Amino acid sequence: MIASVAHFALGGVWFGLLFGKQYAAALGIADRPPQQPAPLFLIGPFVCSAVTIATTAFLLQSLHIGTYGDAMVLATLVAIGYLTPMTLNIAINPLFPRPFYYALINAPMFLIGSLVACAILVWMSQP
């Protein structure tokens, strides 16, 4: 749960403060006035990241990964091998006017989020 909250907070900072304008441009909605996000757009990403983090926790345990170094390797593999390609795959459709730009904005957040989540998971598993 702590890792999911940390990931959610990172997403808020990333998409709200650091890259909000770029994210809107990647989605083709930069000309729209800012709106308060509906609950689905807050709860949905939290639940999705919680599932991803729970799966990563399962992998950490199944692979007997207990060191920060090995956890960072797994975090990077998950982010670059799964999360980034899936993000780009989802964005490659007519509703995303700039799919590569969208992936470029999202991929670093997923990498940092995965690294932070794995660090927290290893920290929580320490006796």
The pLDDT mean sits at 96
- The total of helices stands at 5
Radius of gyration over all CA atoms, rounded: 15 Å
Helix and strand content put the structural class at mainly alpha
**β-sheet strand percentage:** under 5%
Q: How much helical structure, as a percent, in the residues? A: over 70%
Q: What gross morphology would you assign?
A: elongated
Largest sheet composition: none
Uncertain regions spanning at least 5 consecutive residues: none
Give me the count of strands.
0
Written as H for each helix and E for each strand, in order along the chain, the element string is HHHHH
Terminal residue distance: 18 Å
Features:
127 residues, mainly alpha, 5 helices
What is this entry, summarized?
By secondary structure, this protein is mostly helical. It has helices spanning 2-18, 20-27, 40-62, 68-91, 99-125. The protein is built from five helices and no strands.
Write the layout of secondary structure elements.
Layout: H1 2-18, H2 20-27, H3 40-62, H4 68-91, H5 99-125
Helix pairs in contact: 1-3, 1-5, 2-5, 3-5, 4-5
